[in-house]
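Budget justification, computational time. The allocation requested in the original proposal was used primarily to generate structure tokens for proteins on the priority list. As evidence of use, we reproduce two of the resulting records. The first is shown immediately below.
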Amino acid sequence: MPPVHQRSDASRNAALLLAAARELIAEVGNDVALDEVARRAGVGNATLYRHFPTRGDLLVAVYADEVAALCERGERLRGDPDPIGALFAWLAEFVEHVATKRPLALAATEGPAGRRTRLFEEWHATVNATAAELVRRAAPALRSGVTAVDLLSLAAGAAITAGGTAHARHLVALLRDGVTAAAGRAV
């Protein structure tokens, strides 16, 4: 069967809806009124529900875009001539992502009894793979034994406990000093 292609106006409307939802979620949180998303996108409610039948579908689509953008930034940084600089530039973006998008991630992926959905696990694996490649490139300048999981765990902890994104980025800068100060020495 040939692939189904979305009409250009349908693609445009989906993009407008996602952009409007992203803006409104940033302004008022995940409980944004779906009518307001349609209004801001300049489309009717029927168009919204045709693309995103439920609030959950809309939240998943917005968060999927956020994860994709974070990982695309990591892909672009893979070519940076300074692997340590690239790794920590990406980790700074990662802490901002966690600090600002965590409620969206939880709203979009929390299943029954607070369990994470398969989709959450897929996104988690994608972020881990991006970090692993950046760590692999930077490994010669890192302390022996430092892994992507180590750095993601520390960065996520900084993002969740810090007093805002600026403080989280500061903690990542301290982390950089700690894992690169004595490269080669085991931890």
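The second record produced under the same allocation is shown here.
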Amino acid sequence: MAFEPRMHNRISGFSVGGFHRRHFDGVVADVWDVDCAPSAGGTYVAADPRLFVVLEARGGDRPRIRLSPGKGGSRSGATDISYIPAEMELEAELSDLSFVRHLDLHFNVDALSRRLKEDLDPRALSTPRLMFSDPRLMTLAGLIAAECASPAPLNDLYGDGLTVALFVDLMRLVRGPDAGRRSRLAGWQLRRATAHIEENCLRNVRLEELAQITGLSQSHFSHAFKASTGMAPHAWQMQARIGRAKTLMLSADMPLTAVATETGFSDQAHFTRVFRKAVGVTPGRWKKSRLT
């Protein structure tokens, strides 16, 4: 299912003259052409983090942007970019502007995290930046807006590349000094994940269900699990299956074909290949060494 941004707003004094939307991989881009009354403004709350970029403004002052009471932060002036975290209320006031063209980029954090194959610093995601300037971000925003408005847009990979490049630059702007360090799972998360894997190791344990029981995104869980255990969740499951196989070989007089079937391997050859890679010897040799 395509990502759709969810936003609640209360606005007055605006008349939309044009609107263009494009869906990219993990990003929805909206371009608005808005005519403004002398005292236009409103409040906005989005379920996902977003970037607001003023592309063109005619008339008086630039917008004045303020966070909801208690959140701190208020900026105004000739700066054009604002990053607003998820669920943070934003208040905008436009003084004597007659027209504004702006780009809104809505970010699907889980999709971008999977796409970038790395954890995203939660402090970067939750830190607002109001009315700042950055020439490179403005260049990327302009190219994205042109793609949105074009009657013949280029290949989707072009727009995808622009949006992810902008997102990477944006996160670098607000990244904290420890952002590059991989976070580990909390103790309860690690215990819950490993217990679930070991209890269900004879079937294919999906990353989605492990992320769900630990309350994390799939990408965050995968990285944090490896940081905590030194191996990927799939490797941990294979280790658990090998442990079950060892127990069966020592406690029951079962042929290796039956052991392979009981422990979730497709056949004896698959079981032997995985076992030898993990243990260093074939199942038959390992069993013989333990029983003699």
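A brief technical remark on that second record: The longest strand covers residues 27-46.
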